[in-house]
Protein: Chloride channel protein
Amino acid sequence: MTQARTSTAQLEEELAQIRRYEDFSTIDWVKDAIIERYRQSSIQTQNRNDTSWRAWRKLTYETTQTWIVVTLVGAAIGLNSALIAIVTDWLSDIKLGYCSEAWWLNQKFCCWEIEARDGSCENWIHWSQALHMGPDVFVVKWIFYVFWATLFATTCAYLVKVFAPYAAGSGISEIKCILAGFVMRGFLGSWTLMMKSVGLTMAVASNLSIGKEGPSVHMACCVGNVISRCFQKFRTSKAEMREILTASSAAGVAVAFGSPIGGVLFALEEMSSTFPNRTMWKSFFCAMIATMVLQAMNPFRTGKLVMFQVSYDREWHFFEYLFVVVIGIFGGLYGALVIKFNLIVAQLRKRYLKNYGVSEAAALAFFTALIAYPNVFMRIDMTEIMGILFRECEGAQGENYYGLCETNGVGRLVVLLLVATVLRTIGTIVTYGCRVPCGIFVPSMAIGATFGRMIGLLVKAWQVSNPDFFLFASCNPDMPCITPGTYAFLGAAAALCGVMRITVSVVVIMFELTGQITYILPTMIALMITRAVGDWFGADGIADRYIRLNGYPFLDKEDHVFGVPVSHVMQSEMTVMTATGMKFKEIDEILRNTNFQGFPVVQDNKSMAFIGYIGRSELRYLLDKARSVYKAHDTTGVRFSPDTNEDPEVLTSTSDVDHVIPGSSDFLDFGPYVDQTPITVHPKLYLETVMDMFKQLGPRVVLLEQGGKLVGLVTIKDVLRYMARIETSNTTDEAIDDMEQSDCMRSLMAWISRRSGRTGTYTQLNSQPEEEIHELHGR
Amino acid sequence: MTQARTSTAQLEEELAQIRRYEDFSTIDWVKDAIIERYRQSSIQTQNRNDTSWRAWRKLTYETTQTWIVVTLVGAAIGLNSALIAIVTDWLSDIKLGYCSEAWWLNQKFCCWEIEARDGSCENWIHWSQALHMGPDVFVVKWIFYVFWATLFATTCAYLVKVFAPYAAGSGISEIKCILAGFVMRGFLGSWTLMMKSVGLTMAVASNLSIGKEGPSVHMACCVGNVISRCFQKFRTSKAEMREILTASSAAGVAVAFGSPIGGVLFALEEMSSTFPNRTMWKSFFCAMIATMVLQAMNPFRTGKLVMFQVSYDREWHFFEYLFVVVIGIFGGLYGALVIKFNLIVAQLRKRYLKNYGVSEAAALAFFTALIAYPNVFMRIDMTEIMGILFRECEGAQGENYYGLCETNGVGRLVVLLLVATVLRTIGTIVTYGCRVPCGIFVPSMAIGATFGRMIGLLVKAWQVSNPDFFLFASCNPDMPCITPGTYAFLGAAAALCGVMRITVSVVVIMFELTGQITYILPTMIALMITRAVGDWFGADGIADRYIRLNGYPFLDKEDHVFGVPVSHVMQSEMTVMTATGMKFKEIDEILRNTNFQGFPVVQDNKSMAFIGYIGRSELRYLLDKARSVYKAHDTTGVRFSPDTNEDPEVLTSTSDVDHVIPGSSDFLDFGPYVDQTPITVHPKLYLETVMDMFKQLGPRVVLLEQGGKLVGLVTIKDVLRYMARIETSNTTDEAIDDMEQSDCMRSLMAWISRRSGRTGTYTQLNSQPEEEIHELHGR
Structure:
């Protein structure tokens, strides 16, 4: 039995070598789980009766290895995040001036403890000063600001384009697919990590409407992948690797927001398809280590984990729920708007700007900087402005926060904030998805915060001017009644929820971000409304929409109702292997001419009596082996009949063949390699149940068998194809909500097509994958 | 199509009426999901084209209903919890004396703001005072203490026995099973809720070694069940009901510890088998509402959600990790010890004390009180003592906390704490599981806290006496180096983790409990060690062990490696229905003589060609209907051949029969009611994969089909039976760790049997279900 296990393991290792080169395929989690279980049990069996020091060490190493890796990954993520924060800060300030003492210091450190009374500092030279034009020449500052921003964005886009195209964008959509079992070679590689880290500092510093949170998740997963693949265990087991990647994504959010529990919940709510307890514990640990390393590095010298320390100590009035509803509705509308138009922009970008990524980024940075500079709420860093918008004015110790706390001039402030909200929304729509590393978390939150603060200021002004209005009866006349900062806080949460469609993690992230739990009920109510409004326009967040846009094989977590049997969706025209009568050449040609990931095996083409399933990689391996070892030639016969004896102790039917294909140069028996137990279902089973199987169990393919006869097969791609068909056809009741959107989008696309003299419908565009993302292979 | 759906829905409703009386059966989640999807889609279809106000209201109500229920449930849980806290407090104090001003006040409120300088208060009359024997006669106080404790426990056990036997015990194990799909009628009923609430106040006040956290979860689920079953939606859909119950369990923990996020994570980690995002969001909301209501009720007049406000402001020294390891090991050993011996006690209780629940509780309370009173750390309420043990001495403003802060007399303190640790451990072992409402959370935490504080005191004493020892080099000589309170904190976390085997939720609960996140790393390390030590003795927590003890059909979340095909486990002797040739009487007799929950349908007994599956309730329904409507008699022929036409638009094959069984009094066609698409697998499929199917998809039965032929069937019970067999047999490598335990237990049981003149082995005992929990029906 041990022997059998060992040989199975060896075979699996050889096969793993081949499988590693299957790009754009999906992982069969059912098989992976079996392989991994036997790997573990064989280690235990091997070492159980061996009481030597080495065996003990091996067993201990086996158990502690994962924790060592998680710790290393967490620490590396924290470190990387701290370095990026420092560099980004410096680059951001470079846009304004430089430090005369030491060019590598940013404004804060340059002026550390030597700041003059009026807030200026001698060591920090503004660019207009550097040109000896005086310290405050607006136009010169503006020009320099625009120049540096454009330079950063261009460099960044160029680096990304040349060294690691995968480093562009947010990465969250792709990681969701990878965690669900999609293989994208290089997406989590070291080059991507490096370019994304370098590029992100510049992209953020260029003041584009992008955030670093999405990329932070991507970088964290790169770190997780790069470190863990140094260990044999994680190279072999896809499930173990998935755990590390899930933990890394939690750590990515944790360092981005200083929010370890929020990170874990984000991984649970948004990223992972499966989340068993051991993954949760690893995610928690990884997020914790990463946050602690970041805190120890202390890149901002605040010594705090909480990014925006606020202390709202006033109570919430009942009438304010009215405005909570307004903010909630705003969040939902904002999300729907951004998702809709950003996707149109993404399609246009795919179509017309595919080869102009660098120029596009340059142009975007140029215009963003040009427009942003005059408005203070757009000029400074988004994270900083958020912190300011969340603050209360009372107890601000004379600080004015860019005029936010002035009691008169509310009108001007409101206009500034409204302009900032609108312009930044447009900026986010056109920028998110361009060929630089970019996230949508922080821009959304910043937009929500400006809007929320604006509402807060308006309500406050209203209350101050009409204190006797019936709504404000509950206000204490001796105290400020409205705290606009809390409205900004709610707005940020609502906008983030609107665009990502995550709820619990947003609540926890907001609390960990601000160290504040007084306003938990208003926050939850705002998010419920946001969610309801958003769902009215379509249930998917932007990450899921990008997945569909790119045609990745991913089933979202939502429940769908189709009301059709799975046979509606199946491929009934299959390339099958027959148990007997096939020749070497025939199989070789099938492999060369198709790109299916596997083939059902049947008794013969006529009866279609179902025997099993054989994977493409196994077949490839066997053919190569047969050719080299057995000198198989084109006419060698191949048999696929598996051993039918039911020896209960034999673990896998390959166990006793030990790398030898039975047969001679005239005859090959591939039978032992046929998987006799793929997941099979009745063709009348509901499609929804099969989708649950794909989501929960994760097989690569589900075979349809009726009365022992193979009827068809279904993959995730087939299900997705069916869903897309439903959505674009008008006949099904269930898809009406989605329809409205795609209708509108289709007509817009049609209009654009007519304009540009091309023909093409939305549907075609939609199913056309990105150039770099080569056509998904087969099933 | 609409018509078809409606009739299906009506039929389902009728069937639901029958199914409701299936006690001790398991829910088929696969079917439930299908039914629920069609219910939802039919509501949408019905109302989509109807633009009237009523249709809009109906749709809106349908969507908001769940939230209304969640809010109501949360509020009721908070309210119930507050009431229990108030009554428990009062009853606890009654043991010591009464309020002369108003008998219904507890000591704290009786003495509210009128406390004298020395801490005494005139209004509060100690029992020895009441007898005019002076205020401080130790023996009299002791006697009264014992008297009241015994009285409370006896009353409680009596009430539980008479009115709601299900109210005894913790309830967590059962709720885990219910959430996984096990039906236990009355377990979550209003009588259970009432008796558990009333009983719990007395049980806790009686100073037994029990906590109120487990029962709090049970009561919360009762509240959830009682409220939600007033709504049609939750009566019909088991999945919706499960969501409400999961949310309720989260709220139960949330109110017990004042820890909303911890509650959600507890529900995720310990309670639920499936935890989709919408459940998480509902749990979060429910927990939040419950906590807020509790806080608004403010039963302790502290105005704080945080139960034990502590502020550890000193840093953690590296050498202290050594003691973290000690505490972690203690947690693991404590857990293993309690689980092991408590289970033995539980078996003895089942065997010998089944009818003596009241006397047992009385005796336990009597001895516990007798022993506990002289030791201050055992006399006062466990929650209170925990809060005291967590505290720092510095900044205690002269408070002495029962001598804990005295600098000399450490020896006496250590002895007291050690005695408290040991005695309370014994108390917990013998008490947990007795026939009163009882939880194991708080006793475990209290034990951990006394042990931790003891270690802390020892380390402190060592450091103070040997400040130059190399270990203490990092201590600042001008400041206290060791904070014993933090050791107590760690000990509580470790002991809780050791006994329940939950990790992330413990971390979060501890932080929400104390409002303290400084010591996150030591806590996590302690828990990792606890977990590792505990796993060495067996991976399951006490809740899972009780599930196995009681023989509930529940697969735990752990991965198992068996390495056998599912055919090893299957029942190959099945009672099947044949497509043709069966008579009415025959079927009626099968139903009467067996208690299987359903029957496979095959072409004939010889070929066993697989056709489908029919449930017991459907069959029962059809037979009754046939008898009453069609006047079927004993010799009426019954056919089970389903319609094989594959009309794609027909949703279920029952859609066009509309409550009419085709046929006459001589011939009945049950074909349309046969489920043609039960989950089937190949008999060679690995058992582990089938277990995954049970866990993830939740079918009631998995049928084994090979080449169109029915080979056998598997239920969760079969899998559990196989697991039990492996564990008690000596042949399998994998079960060695578990073996050691059961070996030991078996020999102990054998010894006891010999003593008592009975025969019987552990295995028999183990598979013997509790009397009240009738034998599980069938498969």
Remarks:
- Chain A is about 60% helix and 5% strand.
- Chain A touches chain B through 72 residues (CB under 8 Å).
- Residues 320-550 of chain A form a domain with the Clc chloride channel fold (CATH 1.10.3080.10).
- Chain A has five domains: 2-21+34-63, 71-297, 320-550, 566-719, 720-776.
